[in-house]
Amino acid sequence: MLYLIGLGLGDAKDITVKGLEAVRRCSRVYLEAYTSVLTVGKEALVGAERSPASWIDAKDITVKGLEAVRRSSRVYLEAYTSVLTVGKEALEEFYGRKLILADREEVEQEADNILKDADISDVAFLVVGDPFGATTHSDLVLRATKLGIPYRVIHNASIMNAVGCCGLQLYKFGETVSIVFWTDTWRPESFFDKVKKNRQNGMHTLCLLDIKVKEQSLENLIKGRKIYEPPRYMSVNQAAQQLLEIIQNQRIRGEEPAITEETLCVGLARVGADDQKIAAGTLQQMCTVDLGEPLHSLIITGGSIHPMEMEMLNLIDGL
C-alpha cells in the first residue's frame, strides 16, 4: 500500500492519528524534500528553545496519518513544495520511523524507487500541508494505479483552506494563481488574466508566492554541475511590487487594469503557526508591510466585501 500523508501547517502534532498510525507501520517513509525546506534540527522537539521561524513541526500530522507512517516499511518526506522548519530528526523522533528525504529529482524522475515493493509492503509519502497541494503528487498516484499498487490518501490542512483565517469567506474565492520570481529575460504576466476574471465575478484571488529550492544557475545547468543556488522565498512585498509593475505596463498599453494601487489586499505569513501574521491594506501598502519570515501568501480581494468579512478584517488587522 502507498500512503500519501499530509503533515498540516502548524507543528509536528498536526499529523492526524490515522496518518501517524500509517507512518509507524510502513517499511519505508519518504519525506518530500523539494517543495518544503527543513531548517531546524532535532533539538526543536527535544528540549531546546525553538527559533521564531520554527512554525511547523512533527505534531501537525493527523493521528490517522501517524498510524500509517508507523506501519510503513519506507517513509518518504516530500519537502520542496512548501516549507517545513523542523529537522528530519525531529520528525523521526515523533513518528518513530526513519525518513527518506525525497527531493524534486527523486519524485519526478525516480518515482519507481518510491513505489518499489509498495504492492507487498506499506510505503508512506509525507507532504507538508495536504497531499494534493502539488500536481506532481497526483502523478505519483497515477503511476501507482498503473502498476496495480493500492493507495490511500490521508488529508490535512493546507493554505487552500487555512487562508480563511484572515476572515474572508472561502466560498468567495475564485481561481488560485501563482506569482513567480521575474528574471531579466522572463517576466510573465499571464496569471493577471485570472485575477481580472475573479474581480469581474466579485471573487477573491489567493496568490501563491514562488519558492526557489535546490535551483541551479543556467551556467551550472548547461555544464552539468550539481551546484545549487541558495533558497529563496517570495515575500508579499516582492509580489506586490511585481503586480504594480504589471498595472503600469497595462496602462502604457492603453488597457484598463483590473486592480489598482488602492485595491484592498491581505498579506499572510506562516499560516497555522503560533506566530502567524495577517495584514490588510492597499496593494501599494503591501509593498512595505513587514510580515517577517516565510512562507507568505497574498490575497487580492474581489472588490465586493461582505460586511462580516470587513468586520473580521477589522478584528484581525484593525482596519
TrEMBL record:
Q: What class of enzyme is it?
A: transferase
Could you tell me which residue ranges the Tetrapyrrole methylase domain spans?
Answer: 57-285
Recorded catalytic activity of this chain's protein: 2-[(3S)-amino-3-carboxypropyl]-L-histidyl-[translation elongation factor 2] + 4 S-adenosyl-L-methionine = diphthine methyl ester-[translation elongation factor 2] + 4 S-adenosyl-L-homocysteine + 3 H(+)
Q: Looking at the Swiss-Prot or TrEMBL record, what is one Pfam family this protein matches?
A: TP_methylase
Q: Which domain of life is it from?
A: Eukaryota
- InterPro entries (UniProt xref): 4pyrrol_Mease, 4pyrrol_Methylase_sf, 4pyrrole_Mease_sub1, 4pyrrole_Mease_sub2, Dphthn_synthase
| Pathway per the UniProt entry | Protein modification; peptidyl-diphthamide biosynthesis
Q: Name one GO biological process term.
A: methylation
Give me the residues that bind S-adenosyl-L-methionine, please.
Answer: 130, 133, 158-159, 209, 271, 296
Is Transferase included in the keywords of this UniProt record?
A: yes
Might you give the EC number(s) for this enzyme? Answer: 2.1.1.314
- Report keywords, A-Z: Methyltransferase, S-adenosyl-L-methionine, Transferase
Determine if Transcription regulation is one of this entry's keywords.
no
Q: Which GO terms describe its molecular function?
A: diphthine methyl ester synthase activity
Which Gene3D superfamilies does the entry link to? Cobalt-precorrin-4 Transmethylase, Domain 1 (3.40.1010.10), Methyltransferase, Cobalt-precorrin-4 Transmethylase, Domain 2 (3.30.950.10)
Primary role: S-adenosyl-L-methionine-dependent methyltransferase that catalyzes four methylations of the modified target histidine residue in translation elongation factor 2 (EF-2), to form an intermediate called diphthine methyl ester. The four successive methylation reactions represent the second step of diphthamide biosynthesis.
Family per similarity comment: Belongs to the diphthine synthase family.
What is the protein's name according to its record? diphthine methyl ester synthase
